[in-house]
Amino acid sequence: MGAPLRKLSGDPDCKNGTCPTLWGTADGKEYVVQGYVINDPERLAQLDLPEGETAVMVPAAVLEEYFRAHR
């Protein structure tokens, strides 16, 4: 099992508690992004993801909140 996760920032417009979120490992070595599954074949083709990787979309506000707090 990896290092425990801690919530770093979330979607400020979230109403149900399970919205896009930025998580970090307690040791600060990794990040996890929770977001919306990308199903658009054109976008997936642009990413050219190798097997075992995936991508998600998150509102800009999720990352902006984190970076604003850590300047």
Count, helices: 2
Radius of gyration: 14 Å
Number of strands: 5
Tertiary shape: globular
Low-confidence stretches: none
Report the end-to-end length measured between terminal Cα atoms: 31 Å
Helix content: 10-25%
Structural class: alpha+beta
Secondary-structure element series: EEEEHEH
Sheet with most strands: strand arrangement: 1-2-3
The main sheet comes to: 3 strands, antiparallel
Percent strand:
25-35%
The average pLDDT score comes to 89
Can you lay out the helices and strands and say which pair or pack?
Blueprint: E1 5-10, E2 21-25, E3 31-34, E4 36-37, H1 41-47, E5 56-57, H2 60-69
Antiparallel strand pairs: 1-2, 2-3, 4-5
Could you describe the 3D structure shown?
It contains two helices and five strands, in the order ββββαβα. The chain has helices spanning 41-47, 60-69; strands spanning 5-10, 21-25, 31-34, 36-37, 56-57. The strands form two sheets. The chain has a three-stranded antiparallel β-sheet with strand order 1-2-3. The protein is globular and about 35 Å long. The model has no long low-confidence stretch (mean pLDDT 89).
